[in-house]
Each structure stands twice: as structure tokens, then as C-alpha cells.
Amino acid sequence: MQLLELRVPPVALFLVAAAVMGGLAVFTGTDRITFPGQLLAASVLLLAAGLVGLASVRVFARHETTVNPLRPERASRLVAAGIYRYSRNPMYLSLLLALAAWATWLGSIAAAVVLPVFAGAMTRWQIRPEERALAALFGDEFEAYRRRVRRWL
Hints:
Elements: H1 10-27, H2 38-62, H3 90-106, H4 109-112, H5 114-148
Helix pairs in contact: 1-3, 1-5, 2-3, 3-5
């Protein structure tokens, strides 16, 4: 599985997960959950995803460092400000929140099962290799940050 490290763009993994969720919702139609406010709940999750994603990209732009997830060794600065004080990976958190919005809108238990699979795959293939690269680049500064701020939330 090391072959997939830093090779699958996070957005591609997100799109595959969303498609799998949609397929599962269609093929397991009997496991649907509906509740009052379902569309509102999905909308709130999607709004949160957008705000988290936007905030994380803006902080990176302000610090003039790369947002290319496949080349973490090109990072020019360790970003620990803004939303990065609460999550080391808010961009990936925003993708997970968007998938949670999709699962909520679909109302599918089977689709929701994809959420921890997505988080696990993202952690294994993207986040851990990024953390190794950042530790190599920023040493003790990254280790202090890693101890202070959670990986996801």
C-alpha cells in the first residue's frame, strides 16, 4: 500500500468516495433514513465543509506556501495559524464534512459507512506521508505542532 502514498490526489479520492456512496445508496435502497430537517442538516454540513476548506486555503495563501498535496516536501513554511490551530488537516476535514453532507442528504446507512473508510485511506495514503515530509523539513517545530494540534479535529 506504500505505492499509493502521495500518488492519489485527495480530490480524486473524494470523488471516488462520493461515487461509491451514491452507488451504495442506490443499490441498498432499503436502508434509507429520513428525518425532518434532513436537507437542512446536509446543507449545514456542506456549508461547514466550504467554510473550513476556504479558511484553510486562505491561510496557506497568506503564508505563501504550497497547497499541492502530492508534493509536501515543497512546503516553504509550517502553517500553524488560523484554522490550523485546531486541525492539522482542515482541507481534508472539509472533504470529509462534504462527504458527511452527501451521506446525510442520501439518507443511506451504507453510504455513511464510507466515511471512516475515506478518513482511514486519507490518513494512510496522504496525511502520514505528509507528516513525515513536514517532520523532515521542520523538525522540532513540526513535532511541537503535532503534539499541540490534533490530526483531524
